[in-house]
Design a protein that fits this description.
77% helix; single chain; 6 helices
């Protein structure tokens, strides 16, 4: 399981570095933005990630609030899971019921919609 975890982390890191390189080179990757001129739901995620790397949390949140919170949450989850895997040699599994999954999906979709509305208002 640890080798799978490390392989997933390595693949994510390589993809992130490639996308970051394209972003820094000025390549506009968002097809939605190129076609409509409007920001997509994830617009600004690369810039927000760069701000997080510079520890500019406020700037990252201003650029892309939802994905900034998700990136911070995923980072915290990675640290927590890594601690349990490497120190305790056990994996904690969380079971989510069908109704909890529906509530989680509803909350995530609502958050994505509110985030998109925020991005559209900021871009205007």
């Amino acid at each position: 399981e640890i080798s799978q975890w490390l392989a997933l982390l390595g693949a994510f890191s390589v993809i992130s570095l490639l996308l970051l390189g394209l972003h820094l080179a000025g390549v506009q990757l968002c097809l939605f933005n190129r076609l409509t001129g409007l920001p997509c739901v994830t617009c600004g995620a690369s810039r927000a990630a760069l701000c997080l790397l510079r520890c500019s949390f406020g700037e990252a949140f201003r650029i892309q609030p939802l994905l900034t919170l998700l990136m911070i949450g995923c980072g915290a989850y990675f640290v927590w899971t890594s601690f349990w895997m490497f120190c305790r040699r056990e994996v904690v599994e969380v079971e989510i019921t069908r109704s909890e999954r529906l509530i989680l999906l509803t909350v995530l979709c609502s958050a994505a919609l509110l985030n998109w509305i925020y991005l559209l208002l900021v871009a205007a």
